[in-house]
Amino acid sequence: MENLNSKQLFDMLAQKLSDVEYLFFKWSGGGDDWTGFEFVNAKKGAEVLNSAPAALDKETNEIINQSSLFEELSLQINSTDQGWSEGVLLIALQPLTEMFEDDSITYLSQDEGFKGFSIAGKNHEEIGGTLDI
Asked: Are 89 and 24 in contact (CB under 8 A)?
């Protein structure tokens, strides 16, 4: 399976999940200890879904896990001196209809209208970034 860059990943997800405003995941590990992105919730219309939309199947989740998001943001997760990392990922497939905030692991906030990827996390320090689409 080819590793998709952020633009390719976003386009694939936006087409496959055209009725979903955002997807929200948590993640942990890195390097050899990478556990992948774990679905938390999604917003479809006015409803926040606590179970993954059908189109977010095992294959699609694997594509997200194999993408180059961390490399594109130059995030060094689980390097030798850090030992662990954890965080959250917001994929806003459509412009957010309201401000998004989460502080379950580390603080992530995006303003209404944001569209793209937002990653927040921590290891020995706070890490994160955004990729606007």
From this structure: yes
Q: Which residues contact 58 (CB under 8 A, 6 or more apart)?
A: none
- Report the predicted TM-score, pTM, of the whole model to 2 decimal places: 0.88
Q: Report which of 56, 38, 41, 48 is spatially closest to residue 97, judged by C-alpha positions.
A: 48
Q: Say how far apart CA 107 and CA 22 lie, in whole Å.
A: 17
Give the span between the Cα atoms of 92 and 83, in whole angstroms.
Answer: 29
Q: What is the chain's pLDDT, residue by residue, as a tens digit (133 residues)?
A: 568 899 999 999 999 999 999 999 998 876 566 778 899 999 999 999 999 999 999 999 999 988 888 788 776 555 444 557 789 999 999 999 999 999 998 899 999 999 999 998 887 666 666 666 7
